[in-house]
Design brief:
about 300 residues; alpha/beta; TIM Barrel; eight-stranded parallel β-barrel
């Protein structure tokens, strides 16, 4: 396994400094964010350490030089929008940018692009599948031609009352994963156990069932606030909070036991979304250092 991090947490550092930090702290790889230019739609969205809008061979060569100089690999390129947005014009913009991310991955020789399937949160899960069949075949075909695998993250994307209860990302549970993989056998998972904890889904069991689908891994934890859960119930909001690995309710020993059982040897990228570590750049760097120290005890070399 290769221990790395998601570059979004170092949003204010240029690409070279991200690589420098990764090398100095002993990380093996980085997932590079590739959002289009413009304002952020939500926290950590809008970060772009790789501008894929006019990515060419010269820019790819520069990235390769950074990889060689620092000895830090690129685990994947990341872009996490809503490809199934209710607005057809927005869906088109998202799909075109996602194809550019795939093209950049091909130029770099990076085999993985991490993203969301998306969801129209005003529709039921069943009502979203026809839109998946409409939007995703051209994207999947584009990736197949480029020789790039798409890794779908399992985050439900529920943060506000406007996004409740459906969220903005459809495949968030084993039942939905099965439907997705029947539809597109070539897709993989960017597996994040933190999103399963608050759905009360067994993280280790899911790894054992879908282990061959896991081609990228996000290391993030979630703490369930049982006092808040008592007040608002499971249908409420705000009773689970993103935390650094080891500071929440994920059983990391069982998760890594399952990963080794299924033979996973890919990237494990720390994703920091813990508000307690957002006060400054140094706090965010400290979050990565602390997470690295905690996770190293489980890593298979």
């Amino acid at each position: 396994m290769q221990l790395g991090f998601v570059s979004a947490i170092l949003w204010d550092l240029p690409l070279e400094e991200v690589f420098t930090f990764a090398r100095e702290e002993g990380f093996s790889c980085v997932e590079l964010m590739c959002w289009p230019a413009g304002g952020a739609e939500r926290r950590y969205a809008g970060v772009s350490h790789l501008d894929v809008g006019d990515f060419n061979d010269s820019k790819a060569t520069r990235v390769h030089e950074l990889v060689r100089t620092h000895g830090v690999g690129v685990s994947g390129l990341g872009y996490y929008p809503n490809p199934l947005d209710p607005d057809p014009a927005h869906r088109k913009v998202v799909a075109e940018h996602l194809k550019k991310v795939i093209d950049a991955a091909r130029r770099l020789g990076v085999g993985v692009v991490n993203t969301f399937i998306g969801r129209d949160q005003t529709l039921s899960a069943d009502a979203n599948w026809p839109r998946v069949r409409e939007v995703w075949p051209p994207i999947v075909q584009h990736a197949e031609v480029a020789g790039v695998r798409l890794a779908i993250e399992n985050c439900p994307m529920i943060f506000t009352k406007d996004e409740w209860p459906g969220g903005k990302n459809l495949p968030t549970s084993p039942d939905l994963w099965r439907t997705l993989f029947e539809m597109f056998p070539g897709l993989g998972l960017n597996y994040d156990p933190s999103h399963l904890i608050w759905q009360y889904i067994d993280c280790a069991r899911a790894i054992r069932e879908f282990g061959k689908r896991i081609i990228h891994f996000h290391a993030k934890d979630t703490r369930i606030d049982h006092d808040k859960l008592y007040q608002v119930g499971i249908m409420g909001l705000g009773w689970h909070t993103a935390k650094l690995p080891g500071l929440g309710d994920v059983d990391w020993a069982s998760v890594f036991a399952a990963l080794t059982d299924v033979g996973y040897r890919g990237a494990v990228c720390i994703e920091v979304e813990d508000r307690a570590y957002e006060g400054s750049l140094e706090d965010r760097k400290r979050a990565l250092r602390q997470s690295k120290r905690y996770l190293e005890q489980f890593m298979v070399q």
